[in-house]
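Hi all, long-time lurker, first post. I run a small reading group and we've been trying to get comfortable going from sequence to structure in the token notation. Rather than ask abstract questions, I figured I'd post a concrete chain and ask someone more experienced to write out its structure so we can walk through it together at our next meeting. Sequence below, copied exactly:
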Amino acid sequence: MKQKNLILLSMLVFVPISIAAQELHLNPLIIFATSGLAIIPLAALIANSTEAIASVIGPALGGLLNATFGNATEMIISIVALRSGLVDVVKASLTGAIIANLLLALGLAILFGGLRFNEQTFQPAVARINSSSLTLAVIVVLTPAAIQFTSDGLPPSTLNNFSYAASLLLLTFYCLMLLFSMKTHKYLYLVDEENEEPLESSSEHKVNIGLQIVILLTCTVVLVFVSDILVESLEKAISTLGLTSLFTGVILIPLFGGFVEYITCISFAIKNKMELAVAVAIGSSLQIALFVAPVLVLVGWVLGQPMNLSFNPFELVAVAMAVVITNSISNDGRTNWLEGVLLLIAYAVLGTAFYFHP
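-- Answer (accepted) --
Happy to help. Here is the structure in token form:
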């Protein structure tokens, strides 16, 4: 454990290196590599601090904390891109983040957890609620496409107005979900004490909440700057690699923007805390669909850069497929390593499709 922490701390040297490379205008591939390496220790530190805090405040707030700080980077970068008029890139990164969280993050967690434990469990009632909420998100993003497909000569303002109304409704539902999970039905999200490790209760008293919060906030702020450097260099680097903007937005950008979730989910799963792993992976996807996307639509309205909920048809198909396959393996509240492989294969198939998509 000490050796692992030492390696992670030593990798923090890539933070100033990436900033220096950006200031010196070095080769975009060098900036991309150094900023990508800099994200790894920052994400690990955030994962460790959120895990420590979650061990005290419980899985519901802990999962929300992980999802919030994991998506803070994506939110800020998306707003910056939106101000620059990169609406299509923002939309692609949102759908890509949902797909990556459901298939890649959850798939890795289930696989690594399943290799150590024969079977892992979590609350099936919570899984059903999450499945229904994800289905609602799919219905909302499919509706603009349905309106457009069934109408002739539809003015752009119609989809924009629908998106503003739908965004307010989604934000309302998201707030009600928080009320449900933290107040009226908090008991559904509590971890079974019998499944906790023996030393868990004693370790809670050793957690310095103040210190962990400082680490969490500091690393998140630094992560925002490093991620911004990463995305900026990525846009320049892909031109030499021959990749499409769709593949970049849906696959590459979410890989780095969601690195926190991937490390956190794996960390929880290998410690047999599947409740928290599922809360982070699915909870993060729900937050993107029900909170981040609606907020960006409203922010675009304020900034004079109209963004609606009308997405690329192939993106819609990919999101729907990710939700369907995730719901099919999570409704019983039990997981094994093969289901993790199933999710990862699904992600690889979609990634390959986006790579070849013209």
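A couple of things your group might point at:
Strands lie at 120-121, 334-335.
Residues 209-241 form the longest helix (33 residues).
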